[in-house]
């Protein structure tokens, strides 16, 4: 047993929707500063896993620990944990009735209870980090997909989370817009943020991730560094999946 | 001659207009004050809560306002020992009746807000209550406004039924002028015109409000 | 007198005759209100400037004027210029004006929502404008208006109670007379409430069934 501390421990998570066993006992440990990418065919439980981590989906069994504090079964304390776990969604889910800066600041005001001046400063700072400071007073309907997603990243970052979860952040974006979002995510990773990313962007996964997990049918079938997986995948399905990517990228 | 009568009796008629508008205002305030919690209860409440609310809505939408007025004025309030003047009975009944309809408008609006908004709010650590208050309701109220604004002309016309329990609103006073002066058609028609103008003025006012609070790209059609 | 006797010997017969009157009022009003509503809607959409404006005035007046006031005008007002209606006729007329005005709004909205292309295609096949309207647009528009029209029908059942205010003894009137005579306010009014709730609920289910029956996929 290694002495290293894990910032996030996911132990044997199971989840079924009706008769569909989406997660069949998934375990993964993440160290601080690591970027872990989850890849695999659609519908294999990757998004569900992420949503179990911040309890947006309640798992049927298993435990999750953030800094050795148990997140599962936290009851109303879950709101405290959610401040420490940032999440970015495929469809951004920006608050449509608020401008960009208000979107970033609202949780600071209501959840962290910061004074308005401080909240506004922090919000503008985060918008600058993602390159959206000039769009602070625009409404979500006025932003392109890539811009909206960057604002939603800023919104999650403003809470100073310990880890960031990205649920297919670029799947809803056109290829040109995907790049600007991946750039922001890359920058975050280099700055040392602990990130769990569900994605189909193999290029990103291979260049930024410390660890890639290949999931299928509710299990992590294969796990390893990008180099290991790319060059020497053991599991057949993973081979095929990555093989397609290599062919395409050639 | 009719014009002279109208001018002579105008102050009398005017108090009728005030009472009518008072009834409408009370009904709208109670309608929102009760209708909104009812809607929230139907969307976010537990099964017994939802059941009770749907019974309430079924009852108040299934009955004529006239029957409700008779029921409350002659039956329920006296039985409860309440000796309320007719105006208050009228205002309360119209309010309860309006709340039943308005709750459904609000409910539709709340349910039309995409699930993702709540998801995002909760993921930031907001409690359900905070999310409803800061994210769902501000959007839902804007979406509900056009549908809700239909309530104004409806309540305005229904308020005239309070004649049946003796509230001295616009229709009652017009009728009294008719019976005292024997001038019928001009008075009644003037009364109709006043109602139509009140309806138009209110609806226009609400349209102006709608434009003022509009958000770019946001509306009943979705963003 | 005890409750059961009261209910059986007094309430039921009175409610029966009152209910029959209510149903009569509704049965006469509904078809005529629908036909006139269709006419007014067509007049507004397809009529020339004058007709369209006139129909708009019709809709504005009869929707903005409270129904009770309308009934007073028809029953108490018109005699002063020589037109006298019986209470029943005055009630039905008032209901028809009101019902048709609201129906015309629903139908007008539906007609407008039928794509222009339908009319053009019909004309391209050689139909006259009127043929196209009657055979292509109206059937579709009426189908789309079913929710609105049935909603208005339910309102009609409820506002038929106002006929009592011009001396027609329909259901509400019957209940008021009994309640006052026997000092049994709560019992009588709750009982009549149940009757109205039953009427409205049955009609609502009927309307849903009607909608489903006429639904076209897509």
TrEMBL record, chain A:
It is a peripheral membrane protein. Pfam families: ABC_tran. InterPro entries: AAA+_ATPase (IPR003593), ABC_ATPase_HisP-typ (IPR030679), ABC_transporter-like_ATP-bd (IPR003439), ABC_transporter-like_CS (IPR017871), MetN_ABC_transporter-like (IPR050086), P-loop_NTPase (IPR027417). Keywords: Amino-acid transport, ATP-binding, Cell membrane, Membrane, Nucleotide-binding, Transport. GO terms for cellular component: plasma membrane. SMART domains: AAA. The keyword Amino-acid biosynthesis does not apply. It is found in: Cell membrane. GO terms for molecular function: ABC-type amino acid transporter activity; ATP binding; ATP hydrolysis activity. This is Glutamine ABC transporter ATP-binding protein. It comes from Methanospirillum stamsii. The gene is glnQ.
From TrEMBL, chain B:
It is found in: Cell membrane. GO terms for cellular component: ATP-binding cassette (ABC) transporter complex. CDD domains: TM_PBP2 (cd06261). One of its GO terms (biological process) is amino acid transport. SUPFAM superfamilies: MetI-like. Its main location: membrane. It is a multi-pass membrane protein. Keywords: Amino-acid transport, Cell membrane, Membrane, Transmembrane, Transmembrane helix, Transport. It holds the Pfam family BPD_transp_1. Residues 17-206 form the ABC transmembrane type-1 domain. The keyword Transmembrane helix applies. One of its GO terms (molecular function) is transmembrane transporter activity. The chain crosses the membrane at residues 12-39, 51-74, 86-103, 182-202. Coiled coil: none annotated. Belongs to the binding-protein-dependent transport system permease family. This is Polar amino acid ABC transporter permease. It comes from Methanospirillum stamsii. The lineage of its organism: Archaea, Methanobacteriati, Methanobacteriota, Stenosarchaea group, Methanomicrobia.
UniProtKB/TrEMBL annotation, chain C:
The keyword Transmembrane applies. GO terms for biological process: amino acid transport. InterPro entries: AA_ABC_transptr_permease_3TM, ArtM/GltK/GlnP/TcyL/YhdX-like, MetI-like, MetI-like_sf. It is found in: Cell membrane. Residues 19-207 form the ABC transmembrane type-1 domain. The chain crosses the membrane at residues 20-41, 53-75, 81-102, 153-169, 189-210. One of its GO terms (cellular component) is ATP-binding cassette (ABC) transporter complex. Its main location: membrane. It comes from the Archaea. Keywords: Amino-acid transport, Cell membrane, Membrane, Transmembrane, Transmembrane helix, Transport. GO terms for molecular function: transmembrane transporter activity. It is a multi-pass membrane protein. Pfam families: BPD_transp_1 (PF00528). PANTHER family: L-CYSTINE TRANSPORT SYSTEM PERMEASE PROTEIN TCYL, MEMBRANE COMPONENT OF AMINO ACID ABC TRANSPORTER. Belongs to the binding-protein-dependent transport system permease family. This is Amino acid ABC transporter permease. The lineage of its organism: Archaea, Methanobacteriati, Methanobacteriota, Stenosarchaea group, Methanomicrobia.
């Amino acid at each position: 047993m290694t002495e290293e501390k894990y910032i996030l421990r996911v132990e044997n998570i199971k989840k079924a929707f009706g008769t569909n066993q989406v997660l069949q006992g998934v375990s993964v440990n993440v160290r601080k500063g690591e970027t872990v990418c989850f890849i695999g065919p659609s519908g294999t439980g990757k998004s569900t896993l992420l949503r179990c981590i911040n309890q947006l989906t309640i798992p049927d069994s298993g435990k999750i620990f953030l800094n050795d504090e148990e997140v599962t079964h936290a009851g109303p304390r879950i709101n405290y944990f959610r401040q420490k776990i940032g999440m970015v969604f495929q469809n951004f889910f920006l608050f449509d009735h608020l401008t960009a800066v208000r979107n970033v600041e609202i949780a600071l005001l209501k959840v962290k209870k910061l004074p308005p001046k401080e909240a506004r400063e922090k919000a503008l700072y985060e918008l600058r980090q993602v390159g959206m400071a000039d769009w602070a007073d625009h409404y979500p309907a006025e932003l392109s997909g890539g811009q909206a997603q960057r604002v939603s990243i800023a919104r999650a970052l403003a809470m100073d989370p310990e880890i960031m979860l990205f649920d297919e952040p670029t799947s809803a974006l056109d290829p040109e817009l995907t790049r600007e979002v991946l750039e922001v995510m890359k920058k975050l990773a280099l700055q040392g943020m602990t990130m769990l990313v569900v994605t189909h962007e193999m290029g990103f996964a291979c260049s930024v991730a410390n660890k890639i997990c290949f999931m299928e049918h509710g299990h992590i079938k294969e796990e390893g560094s990008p180099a290991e997986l790319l060059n020497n995948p053991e599991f057949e399905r993973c081979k095929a999946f990555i093989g397609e990517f290599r062919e395409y990228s050639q | 001659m009719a014009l002279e009568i109208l001018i002579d009796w105008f102050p009398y008629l005017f108090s009728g207009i005030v009472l009518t508008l008072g009834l409408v205002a009370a009904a709208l305030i109670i309608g929102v004050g009760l209708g909104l919690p009812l809607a929230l209860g139907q969307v976010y409440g537990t099964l017994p809560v939802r059941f009770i609310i749907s019974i309430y809505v079924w009852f108040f939408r299934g009955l004529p306002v006239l029957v409700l007025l008779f029921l409350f004025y002659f039956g329920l309030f006296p039985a409860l020992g309440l000796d309320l003047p007719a105006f208050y009975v009228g205002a309360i009944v119209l309010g309860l009746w309006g709340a039943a309809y308005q709750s459904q408008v609000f409910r539709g609006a709340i349910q039309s807000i995409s699930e993702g908004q709540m998801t995002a709010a909760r993921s930031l650590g907001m409690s359900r209550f905070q999310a409803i208050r800061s994210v769902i309701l501000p959007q839902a109220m804007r979406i509900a406004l056009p549908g809700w604004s239909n309530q104004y002309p409806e309540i305005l016309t229904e308020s005239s039924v309070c004649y049946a329990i003796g509230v001295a609103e616009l229709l009652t006073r017009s009728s009294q002028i008719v019976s005292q002066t024997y001038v019928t058609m001009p008075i009644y028609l003037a009364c109709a015109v006043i109602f139509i103008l009140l309806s138009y003025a209110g609806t226009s006012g609400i349209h102006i409000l709608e434009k003022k609070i509009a958000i770019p790209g946001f509306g009943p059609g979705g963003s | 007198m005890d409750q059961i006797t009261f209910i059986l010997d007094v309430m039921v017969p009175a409610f029966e005759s009152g209910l029959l009157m209510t149903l009569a009022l509704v049965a006469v009003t509904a078809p005529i209100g629908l036909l006139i509503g269709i006419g007014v809607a067509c007049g507004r959409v397809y009529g020339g400037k004058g007709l369209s404006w006139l129909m708009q005035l019709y809709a504005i007046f009869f929707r903005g004027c409270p129904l009770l006031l309308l009934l007073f005008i028809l029953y108490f007002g018109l005699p002063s210029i020589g037109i006298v209606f019986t209470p029943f006729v005055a009630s039905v007329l008032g209901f028809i004006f009101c019902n048709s005005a609201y129906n015309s709004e629903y139908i007008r909205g539906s007609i407008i929502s039928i794509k222009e292309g339908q009319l053009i295609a019909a004309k391209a096949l050689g139909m006259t404008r009127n043929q196209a309207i009657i055979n292509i647009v109206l059937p579709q528009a009426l189908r789309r208006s079913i929710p609105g029209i049935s909603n208005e029908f339910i309102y009609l059942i409820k506002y038929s109670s106002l006929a009592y205010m011009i001396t027609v003894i329909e259901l509400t009137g019957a209940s008021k007379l009994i309640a006052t005579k026997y000092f049994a306010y709560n019992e009588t009014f709750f009982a009549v409430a149940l009757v109205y709730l039953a009427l409205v609920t049955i009609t609502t289910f009927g309307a849903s069934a009607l909608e489903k029956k006429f639904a076209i996929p897509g």
